[in-house]
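Our consortium's second objective concerns turning raw sequence data into structural hypotheses that experimental partners can test. To show how far this objective has progressed, the report includes one record in full. It was chosen at random from the queue rather than selected for favorable results. The single chain below, 287 residues long, was entered without modification.
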Amino acid sequence: MDVELRHLRAFLMVGRHLSFTRAAEQLFVTQPALTRTIKQLEDLLETRLLDRDTRRVGLTEAGARFFEQAQSAVAAVDRAVSSVVAPTPLRLAFTWLLPTPWAQDAIAEYERMGEGSVSLIRTDEPVDALLRGDVDVAVLREPRAVPEQVRVVPLFHEERVLICSAGSGISVDRPIPWGDLRHHPFVFNAVTGTVGPWSWADGDGPTTFVETANYDEWLESIAAGRGVSAVAAIAAQRTIHPAIRFVPFADAPPSSVSIAFVPGDRDPVKRRFVGAATAVLASTEQR
């Protein structure tokens, strides 16, 4: 058996994450299958590339050298393939405000790899768009009731802030406890919102909920003083509205961010974007 591209891709993923568990998740293989692939590579090279025990994984000296060369080799193969195959834009769905800077870095990394461009598609129903084949990959916040045929890759968490009207009387000078939400009507976006009646056990949350159907209705309902809400902190950085105020929470549960796709059609394109998205995330975590 010769060294194959699959060996290199598997090794690079483990080398990036320094974790067999995380690498297996990103490659969509089982951990035992990934372990066998790495062992095959080491046997073919007659060299140990990874130091591993029950608690940590690290590159050996030879592994670090091989990592750099393998990375260049895989990139060269990808560029060669791209040179003769007309790239089709990857269609990336999102509901509102892509997470910064991860989304921009992931898109830039994917396009830097020569895989083609990324076409951004805003939709209120990203999971349905995936199932219909209208998009390739979707950014999901706090995904709920996702069908089993949709593969979800967890990425990171965002902090939440309180959003309220300028006339609400809530002080913006001190963090507000999550539990204080029970004292206010709560406005939620039933379609793409990350917090709603489903976020509390019976009797633990707000007693009054105001339902809206999209982001604009949600925002304007809050501005009109219909109630308060909770949103990813990025909204405070990128939403300008004279009738809106943002207040930090003292103890809010974080909001999860994932990417999702349906395996099958255009699999290589989807998986390469997932690889780029997780690679920039790993790079950020290491910094």
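The partners drew two points from this record. Residues 61-84 form the longest helix (24 residues). The mean pLDDT is 91. Both points have been shared with the crystallography group to help prioritize constructs.
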